């Protein structure tokens, strides 16, 4: 019978492409990882990898075995996290990472709910990028991360999530922008002007190519600064709930493009580690996030 260490070593080498990279990921020596894989191969009776230079190239049998092995490893991780969570019943601090486009009324909604539940709990709200948030979830420094949905079936790391209601977005420019004077505005007009994009959306790459229109794109990590820049030049795609005050004050205008329509939106997810929802306060926070009305 195979061991969990053998399965874990196999999956790590398969995903990282070499014994050295897998060893760094597993925080074990290269020799140990290699021994686990060799022992697994001896048990199976066939090779899992072919060494080409410094690369460990999976065999056809390894490719067929990988998905089931990954499931076993994932369930093992989940069991370990959940077993640890059973000892964390007394929660005194909650740390939530959020993207800059997270609606403020969602944050205040959760804050009020937690305070009503237990006013002694300290809540830390930290603005972070998606990659930072996912990493810190696994490191145990973050409890819940509210981040944009990438449009993929699986997260980058071994975490799970709950989907939230979509955020409505639109295109905006200064009231004095040439774009605001074009009656039949098209995407090709936007491509000629500077586009401002929030840092997190810029780092999502391929799944947000539709939001990255102009070849001249400036990335900004702060929403307020982004809006100040758009007042002077260019345009942006931002959540309607955030841009409404700027439009009401006559500082920015919502652009209308037939090619994009009026129903552009993207999703937010609440990411968390397996087993976290079994702890009462975190389970409740996830429920409160789901009940939020959205925009």
From TrEMBL:
InterPro entries: LysR_HTH_N (IPR000847), LysR_subst-bd (IPR005119), WH-like_DNA-bd_sf (IPR036388), WH_DNA-bd_sf (IPR036390). Pfam families: HTH_1, LysR_substrate. One of its GO terms (molecular function) is transcription cis-regulatory region binding. It comes from the Bacteria. Residues 1-59 form the HTH lysR-type domain. Signal peptide: none annotated. Keywords: DNA-binding, Transcription, Transcription regulation. Belongs to the LysR transcriptional regulatory family. This is LysR family transcriptional regulator. It comes from Aliivibrio sifiae.
